[in-house]
Amino acid sequence: MSGAADFSVQARVGAARAGTLCVRGKACLTPAFLPVGTYGAVKGVPPDLLHQLGARLVLANACHLHDRPGADVVARLGGLHRFMGWDGLILTDSGGFQVFSLLACSRLDEQGVTFRSPVDGRELRLGPREAVDVQLALDADVAMAFDHCPPLPVDHALLEQAVERTTRWAKTARERHRQRSDRGQALFGIVQGGLDDALRERSARQLVELGFDGYALGGLSVGEPNAELRAALPRYAPLLPDGRLRYLMGVGRPADVLCAIAAGFDVFDCVLPTRNARHGMLFTRRGPLQLKNARWRDEPGPIEAGCDCPACSTFPLGALRHLFLSGEPLAIQLASAHNLRFLHRLVEAARQAILQGRDPAALPDYAELCAAG
User: Fold this and answer.
1) Where are the domains of the chain?
2) Peptide bond preceding 360 in cis form (omega within 30 of 0)
3) How far is the first Cα of the chain from the last one, in angstroms, to the nearest whole number?
4) Which of 135, 162, 249, 343 lies 20 to 30 Å from 190, alpha-carbon distance?
5) Over the stretch 237-266, which tens digit does the pLDDT of each residue have?
6) Which SS3 state, helix, strand or coil, does residue 262 take?
7) Residue 305 CB: number of other CB atoms within 10 A?
8) According to the model, what pLDDT value does residue 1 have?
9) In the Cβ-directed half-sphere of 271, how many Cα atoms lie within 13 Å?
């Protein structure tokens, strides 16, 4: 391993871990949630507010930035940190999920995928080498190896092909990164295998042998039933090395995050907080709150008592509803800030529970949320 990412565990309760990730001298306490800034910005939330909400590690997408404006443009503008106005840690997804969600207009071969830009239709190319080169040009703190991420359900033979291809591509990506990286960037591998336990074990074993700086579990939250996702987490977390960060990709429902923490995962990302906010759906410990509901028209209290986000600290719920129905951009920003703060408070509470020797899956303040699923 290159040692570009240092991960240490301060406390454990069962499989759950409270740890610290350090890359390039910057730290992120775990468990942690990663806000998603696909094109270089978290929708509706400026960087200073992101930091205020508790974010220390954010995600951007190498595939989309490769498409627009181009990694070379980002590099000329000073790299991704300056481009995003963000001085914390940045992880870039390689784009495997995005590319394979565009399979109708993609051509797959053993060296990668050729696909049409969703922006202007021009032909683009991504493979394990290109994905490494793009992420080095972006200068993210953590890069992800390019993987084959099939949707679920999928034929077993195709799932096995995706696992073997992911391993071959991971080896190519590791070699390319070792040859070209000279600025302390970490590289994580992505374990595939769907809900097939034997394939997951094979994928994890093969990737661990390659020696990545951290490991992600990909290919979940892509169409499988939620109950199957939750049941799989305790089986798959132990497949990833105990001494490395464990990243569960694409999971952001609050109850799922708590289940994943209890299973032994450390960090999570999802577009759900900001996407839900744009549709007026807010996270609360009682379950989702629909902002457009007429019952909130005269509500003088906050979205949730005890929340310290800008929306709850400043605005009555009834006023926020009015702003949302009036199409005021401020409403989207406030709703997004609340949902992100909710998840950051959740992982912070889970971390404190672990440090105190308590089960993070049994947080009393979130019992109703977990019961509702």
Assistant:
1) 32-270, 277-372
2) no
3) 38
4) 343
5) 999 999 999 999 999 999 999 999 999 999
6) helix
7) 9
8) 44
9) 11
Q: Residue 216 — φ and ψ, nearest 5°?
A: -115, 150
Amino acid in position 134: V
pLDDT band (50, 70, 90) for residue 117: confident
Please name the residues in contact with 213: beta carbons below 8 A apart, sequence gap of 6 or more: 1, 2, 3, 4, 5, 142, 186, 187, 188, 244
Q: Give pLDDT tens digits for 131-187.
A: 999 999 999 999 999 999 887 788 999 999 999 999 999 999 999 999 999 899 999
Provide the whole-model pTM. Answer: 0.95
Comparing C-alpha atoms, which of 216, 125, 135 is closest to residue 173?
Answer: 135
Helix, strand, coil content of the chain in percent (nearest 5): 45, 20, 35
Does CATH number 3.20.20.105 belong to domain 32-270? yes
Positions annotated as catalytic residues are 93, 269
DSSP string over 73-135: HHHHTT-HHHHHT--SEEEEE-SHHHHHTTGGGEEEETTEEEEE-TTT--EEEE-HHHHHHHH
Strand order in the sheet with 142-144: 32-34, 267-269, 246-248, 214-217, 186-191, 142-144, 89-93, 57-61
- The string of DSSP letters for 219-231 reads S-SSSS-HHHHHH
Whole-angstrom Cα distance, residue 94 to residue 280?
Answer: 30
> For residues 336 and 334, what is the distance between their CA atoms, to the nearest angstrom?
5
